[in-house]
Each structure stands twice: as structure tokens, then as C-alpha cells.
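It is worth pausing here to work through a concrete case rather than discussing structure prediction in the abstract. The textbook approach is simple: state the sequence, then state the predicted structure, then interpret. We follow exactly that order.
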Amino acid sequence: MADGTYTLLVELSEAATIEVGALGEHRFPSGWYAYTGSALGSGGFSRVDRHYELAAGDRETRHWHVDYLLGDGAAALRGDVRTVGADVECAVAERLPDGPVEGFGASDCDCPSHLAYGADGGELQRTVADVHRAVSEE
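Step two, the predicted structure:
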């Protein structure tokens, strides 16, 4: 099974106030979000499949910060970008735009956040793809 690093592309159609586990309640403006995580180990990218299932309403349990965003009714998971076989989660997250929640997805590292925000989905998707490509070539 393949493993590596992934970035989920999430569209939030309207602003929402979301309780994000231990991070508490946060306001998310409408727009596009890029969440970067790792899919290392025996399960590999099956973690990404689980995120799609949660976003589709096929799962209820929230384990990670991103699950709270994906579980909101205004959120739609629009795609993902993957770097196979590489642990570049922090390198990708550090090169993406800032997000609205300090510590989001970064409880096990020193990054400010693993959630980026962009008003334009196409631009954010291109940036994510470019960053994944760049870090995989380093």
C-alpha cells in the first residue's frame, strides 16, 4: 500500500463557526482550504479515503482537526494532491498560505498550522500542486 503526504482541497460555501476538538470554536470564512497531513505507515493513503467518507457523511467519528471542518454542512472535499513515499508534511504546510486557526493539524510538530486558506480555489489548487512538486524534487 502506498504512503506519503497529502493535501486535501476543501471548499467552504459559506462562513461557519466550527468547534475544532481541543482547539475550541473558530470562525472559518467562506472560501477554499488546503489541509496537509501525512499518510505514513501501514494504512497509507487509506487515511485519505476515510476523509472522503467523512466528508460524504458516511462516517461520523472525528479523530483529527480536519474532520471537524469536513463534517460541517457547508464544507465539500473537492480533491487532493499527494506526494507518494515522502514525509514532506511540514515542508508543504510551511510553504502554503496562512490559515485561520493556529495549531490546526499541527499538534505533533512546531508548524504554526497545517491548514491554509485561499479565496480562489483554482489558485490554491495550483499552489498546492506546485509546492508538492517542488518539495518532492528537493
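Step three, interpretation. The mean pLDDT is 94. The helical segments are 46-55, 65-70, 89-95, 121-137.
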